[in-house]
Write a structure and sequence with these properties.
Helices cover about 60% and strands about 0% of the residues.
Length: about 300
């Protein structure tokens, strides 16, 4: 009822109300995201339990829930407490760390810890199975949108899962957003201009859709680790304004790219390159390097022509 009243007053555009297939896809992707977070928390509980037993396995193995780690955890639950026997369960390249593993597995793991750890692993496995089932259902729901998913998958930081999440939240019809800026503003990933007495002041972007925020935050973090234009943009802003603002700015760029790709069926992502800003403004880049060198050396830098 209240949606109809808002639409009548012009406060809500009907095109912003997703259709039933998108709402159902949104339910699936949001629930999958919830289960992924729950699985992460369950894994963190298991790591904390091992720390309580003074088993420092996570300090040696990056993923204690991999094959080697799960074999060791299963042996601990079964009653094996000998560090040498547990370390011998390492596989592949992990065997080179046998000596360190023996030290990490020397703790005070008891039957009490084994009981709780078994429950945590069972819960983790159950969540993993549910996530896999949801992913299969989502793939079936997004089968008609395979082209759009493939377009977004080309963007650094965005994989198949993130592409599915984005499409579920914003849809594929970009005519509802006149420009990319409208999409970023709707998602609360656009900077606000606030000025008082002729001085610009910082302002928060506002509280937007938390599902979009979480998805873009993870995508921006992943993009920042690549050797691309998006990574260069993140690093430039992080140095001057901090990591949080850099994440928002990178998320804004991701939404802008998404809008352009979904607006054109034939569009494909083309990276500008990590040196885009350097090529765009070499003089500015030179000033930045001089300023940074002066800051590090504490001396005045003067450029002279090379011989």
């Amino acid at each position: 009822m209240w949606l109809c009243k808002l639409a009548e007053r012009g406060m809500l555009r009907a095109s912003f109300i997703p259709d039933r297939p998108q709402r159902q896809l949104r339910d699936l992707t949001r629930y999958r995201r919830t289960l992924v977070h729950e699985r992460t928390r369950e894994k963190q509980r298991a790591e904390k339990l091992l720390e309580d037993a003074q088993v420092k396995l996570s300090s040696v193995i990056s993923d204690i829930f991999g094959k080697s780690g799960r074999d060791m955890l299963a042996a601990l639950i079964a009653g094996q407490r000998d560090p040498h026997a547990l370390a011998a369960l390492a596989r592949g390249t992990m065997r080179a760390k046998t000596a360190i593993l023996r030290q990490a597995l020397t703790g005070h793991f008891t039957d009490h810890h084994a009981y709780l750890l078994a429950m945590m692993l069972d819960r983790t496995d159950a969540l993993t199975a549910q996530i896999a089932d949801l992913t299969t259902r989502i793939e079936q729901a997004t089968a008609p949108l395979a082209r759009q998913v493939a377009q977004l998958d080309e963007i650094p930081g965005i994989g198949i899962t993130t592409a599915q999440d984005l499409i579920a939240e914003i849809g594929t019809d970009m005519t509802r957003f006149p420009t990319a800026g409208h999409l970023a503003s709707w998602a609360k990933f656009a900077p606000k201009a606030r000025e008082s007495a002729g001085r610009a002041k910082t302002a928060a972007t506002g509280k937007g859709n938390p599902w979009i925020g979480g998805t873009l935050g993870e995508a921006a973090t992943a993009a920042a680790r690549t050797n691309t234009f998006l990574a260069a943009r993140y690093k430039r802003i992080a140095r001057r304004r901090g990591k949080q603002r850099a994440l928002v700015a990178t998320g804004n760029s991701l939404l802008t790219i998404t809008w352009h790709l979904l607006s054109d069926p034939d569009a494909r992502f083309t990276d500008l390159g990590p040196d885009w800003h350097d090529r765009l403004a070499p003089q500015r880049r030179r000033r930045q390097l001089i300023t940074e060198l002066e800051r590090i050396s504490g001396k005045k830098v003067t450029l002279t022509d090379a011989a």
